[in-house]
Amino acid sequence: MTALRMRARNFLTEQELIEVRTRATWKSILLMAHAWTLILGSIAIVALWPNPFTFVLAVAIIGSRQLGLAILMHDGAHGALANGEKLNMALSQWFCAYPIFAETKAYRRYHLQHHARTQQDDDPDLILSAPFPITQASYRRKFWRDISGQTGYAQRKAQFLSALGDKSWPLRQRAAHFWEKLGPQFVFNLIFLAGLTAAGVWWAYPLLWLLPLLTWMMVITRIRNIAEHAVVPDSDDPLRNTRTTRAGFVERLFIAPYYVNYHLEHHLLFYVPCYNLPRVHQILSRSRYAGRMEVQPNYAAVLRLATAKPANEDRPGALVSNVRRARTGVSVDNNQVSSGF
Questions:
Q1: To which H or E segment does residue 214 belong?
Q2: What are phi and psi of 11, to 5 degrees?
Q3: Collapsed DSSP state (helix, strand, coil) of residue 38
Q4: CB atoms < 10 A from the CB of 176, how many?
Q5: Nearest to 46 by CA among 284, 212, 226
Q6: Each residue's pLDDT tens digit, 163-180
Q7: pTM
Q8: Least confident range of 185-189, 272-276, 315-319
Q9: Could you give the CA distance from residue 267 to residue 263 in angstroms, rounded to a whole number?
Q10: Which helix (H) or strand (E) element contains residue 211?
Q11: Adjacent-strand bridge partners of 262
Q12: How do residues 35-79 score in pLDDT, each as one tens digit?
């Protein structure tokens, strides 16, 4: 079955459409600068005041900004990060995707299928939402795998092995394949490690870059996946086969950076840059479609919906065949954080 579509002019005037589609490269650069400022600032705070509190706080903030970089990469995949494809791709790759071992072009090919077939049987991201609702015990197990690094380790191991290619290939072919899949990512991360080493904080790379990437980012990536498409009211209605989740300051800081919570609006107008999505939400909320929109008050409310399955129906290990993608939130073949956005 094919999901229904909505024309932008059904709820936007011509002038409003022009306004929300307008891209301002400087705004995207400010968001990237904001992400990297919080990352480097968190590292500096731990270096100056090393204690358990500053360390845990830094891991949470850096992990959320790593998700933020993935969100900005996602804007780049839609061509919405900057004016001009070359600049858009350069910013998306080198300042957003490569730092977190992702790649915009491969992600774009994969992600556009999700937009074309949202919540349909051939949606490549359906596996991320189909298992829900689950029991609270099931979610606790998933949370433990995420926060303990098991999910992140499984994801990166599969990504690395995939990049190595087939063992039967000649060494030169395997090396070329690895460079194509992960070469620039390793280059960026080696430069980042060198910079931290030069600043006298080499330890920050494993403890305050890789650790958040393997732990807190995995936790909030799962929460984001759940909020975007799990337990939605109607898989065929564009106003109800995804959702917007209201986010306060704390949620924006630790869980939902850079307007990722406006997912319904993004699906309606995927070419709109993320910083214009709140404007789209305001317009929709005043329209005749407001009552149909799937909007939840916060992420806690979404998790309650997603974990509403009765405890006596808990089946540990029932989804083992889906573990590679469902629990990691990753498309290994495409070397990307899974679409979900």
A1: helix 211-214
A2: -135, 0
A3: helix
A4: 14
A5: 212
A6: 999 999 999 999 999 999
A7: 0.92
A8: 315-319
A9: 6
A10: helix 211-214
A11: 244
A12: 999 999 999 999 999 999 999 999 999 999 999 999 999 999 999
